[in-house]
Amino acid sequence: MAVPTLEEVARVAGVSRASASRVVNGSPSVGIQVRQSVERAIVELGYVPNRAARSLVTRRNDSVGVVIAEPTGRIFSDPFFVEVLRGISGGLAAREMQLVLVMSQSPEEERRAERYLTRGHVDGVILFSLHGDDPLPEHLHSQGIPVVVGGEPPRGARVSYVDNDNHGGAFAAVTHLIEQGRTRIATILGPQDMPAGVTRRRAYRDALRAAGLPLDESLEKGGEFTREGGQRAMDVLLQRHPDIDAVFAASDLMAAGALSSLHAAGRRVPEDVAIVGFDDSIIALSTQPSLSSVHQSMELMGRELANSLLQTIDARDRAVRRVVLETQLVVRESSGGPPTGQN
Amino acid sequence: MAVPTLEEVARVAGVSRASASRVVNGSPSVGIQVRQSVERAIVELGYVPNRAARSLVTRRNDSVGVVIAEPTGRIFSDPFFVEVLRGISGGLAAREMQLVLVMSQSPEEERRAERYLTRGHVDGVILFSLHGDDPLPEHLHSQGIPVVVGGEPPRGARVSYVDNDNHGGAFAAVTHLIEQGRTRIATILGPQDMPAGVTRRRAYRDALRAAGLPLDESLEKGGEFTREGGQRAMDVLLQRHPDIDAVFAASDLMAAGALSSLHAAGRRVPEDVAIVGFDDSIIALSTQPSLSSVHQSMELMGRELANSLLQTIDARDRAVRRVVLETQLVVRESSGGPPTGQN
DNA sequence: CCATGTTGAGAGAGCGCTCTCTTGACAGCG
DNA sequence: CGCTGTCAAGAGAGCGCTCTCTCAACATGG
């Protein structure tokens, strides 16, 4: 009943512990008959290597830390996390690496987490949901710990990251609206203290500029990444510019709120006002009319984060890897066709 | 620059490695001056115990596995997971235990996960999102691995679990509607292959029965845990029973869908039809009118899961622990006051 | 036929820690 | 004053594994 050790495997196979170890670790310099008899013994005994013992000598842990630092209930991003985690998990699974989740909810816990991460308990770290100028990534990096950041890293940090192509996606969304013949295009901005929010705004402007449309700051209205935020922003925009014929919202949730506002104001979507969201979340499919949106696969992001980190760990270099994931505009009912409104 | 070991701590403190170890582990039989000098040395060197070395001899890992088995994109529960994870993380942090996340997305990965969990890589396991008759909890339990299940465990499994008081919450919700003077109360059911869905339905019936109201199966309409599902169910219910004056929906998302349906049908909420949801998620606050709902703290659930598991690990017993967490009805606009409709 | 690789396999040290066993010091008691 | 009991502290084994070093066996070339 006792858990079998390498020693026993070696004994059963009639070889030395060293040879058994070589087989387990896939060393090339092992004769065919030794390999086979060890493999048979492994199956027979149901042997599984003891991670602790292995770590002790290799100084590796076969585990990566995933840090979700939450300043104070930044609820917005929650639904994404699970998807990203799933992606990371998938990317790690192939290598039998384990995912150690670290969620720090207080400064005290954050310090504990940092201590934990810097003391060699993990082979690398994936960071998430950074508040603007978090020093953690740079900190870990400077201690020689492989780090990859999900989303844009705090500015100034020379750190690897994987990000969605926010600019490309938003640019495509606005350009799409323009191509539909819309000319009075407003935008509902995301929080401007988040890189994604800033970038999407910039892309909105760039797209207008590229099409030769005039920029008008009063067509931009910000808010939180919530349904209510979107609704209120839309109310304001309609008041300012009753002749708006399109809206680019920085998130689906905001777009859904805007939809309610437009409804209440008697605007038809997409006939009077076309609207495009961002994220392509479940929400986009459940609104009435269904929402055009910019698709980004958070699961893919997770997978890329895992890959990127594993590469860094393997290479033992300190190269900065940047990966930008394509986003894709998904056109649904809310932005179909040219304006037909008459108000 | 090298990481300090216990050996060095002992040398600096001028004591034996054994004594240093005793101090680190808080053994009571250590003299005051020895303790102090060791503590000083620890601070001075920035010593942190090597987990691998410790595990090797103690045969403990100071880590628990959290398993999220996802049959096939059961998206419904996603938003909860992060909250539960946060709770677990918080509950574990105090004990310096680490959270190893295991997400199995394919049968192949599931087998890998099980192998991992049964090979003594974790001190205990928290299981989640079980599909009806998952054998995993019973399996782990029979291998002597401490297990706690979040939500109702598969029937028949003699396993510890932490669950929300679905019955109590749903009962309170329906009773509340009755107390408001509603008499034609419909319900939108959750999936009947999930324990929570079944229990909420039972509570709905129990509440009607307790109030002496007649049961009518045609007032029950099921669907998926989605907005659309709720909307379609409500459509059907209105068709069957135009005189419905209240609805208990098994989730906020479904309630939101029902709201759209009621809106489209020209029913006023709450004047004509009162409605109560379940989960008290963000959605409840962003609907128009705001949604009465049954509150359940998923974070608390996570914390209780962690506590329960830690207890089992410490006690080394195989006792089955059951914890039922109180749910609480939160009354908002959607169910305020008696019916005033005249249709 | 001997020097020289080349390749497969074993011996053994040691990773950092815990824990049992043993020892030493000292108090209490007859 | 010697004996026993108690408590603090040290010595040392050993957890399961990897990895370097060494060695044996055999092939190759001069």
Give a structural overview.
2 copies of one chain form a homodimer. Chain A has 343 residues and is of the alpha/beta class. Chain A has 13 helices and 12 strands. The first copy, chain A, has helices at 6-13, 17-24, 32-45, 51-58, 78-93, 107-118, 136-142, 166-179, 195-210, 227-240, 252-264, 282-286, 298-315, and strands at 63-69, 98-104, 124-128, 147-150, 160-164, 185-189, 220-222, 246-249, 274-279, 292-295, 322-325, 328-330. Chain A has a 6-stranded parallel β-sheet with strand order 2-1-3-4-5-11, sandwiched between helices. In chain A, strands 7-6-8-9-10-12 form a 6-stranded mixed β-sheet, with helices on both faces. The model of chain A has no long low-confidence stretch (mean pLDDT 88). Chains A and B meet through helix 4, helix 5, strand 2, helix 6 and helix 12 of A and helix 4, helix 5, strand 2, helix 6 and helix 12 of B. Chain A binds a DNA duplex (30 and 30 nucleotides) through helix 2 and helix 4.
Structural class by sheet pairing and helices of chain A: alpha/beta
Q: How much of the sequence of chain A is in beta strands?
A: 15-25%
Total helical elements of chain A: 13
Largest sheet: spatial strand order of chain A: 2-1-3-4-5-11
Q: Kindly state the number of beta strands of chain A.
A: 12
Helix content of chain A: 40-55%
Summarize the biggest pleated sheet of chain A.
6 strands, parallel
Quote the average pLDDT of chain A: 88
Radius of gyration of chain A: 26 Å
Our measurement of the CA-to-CA distance between the termini of chain A, rounded to an integer number of angstroms, reads: 81 Å
Shape of chain A: elongated
Give the largest interface: A-B, 46 and 46 residues
SSE order of chain A, as H and E? HHHHEHEHEHEEHEHEHEHEHEHEE
Question: What oligomeric arrangement do these chains adopt?
Answer: homodimer
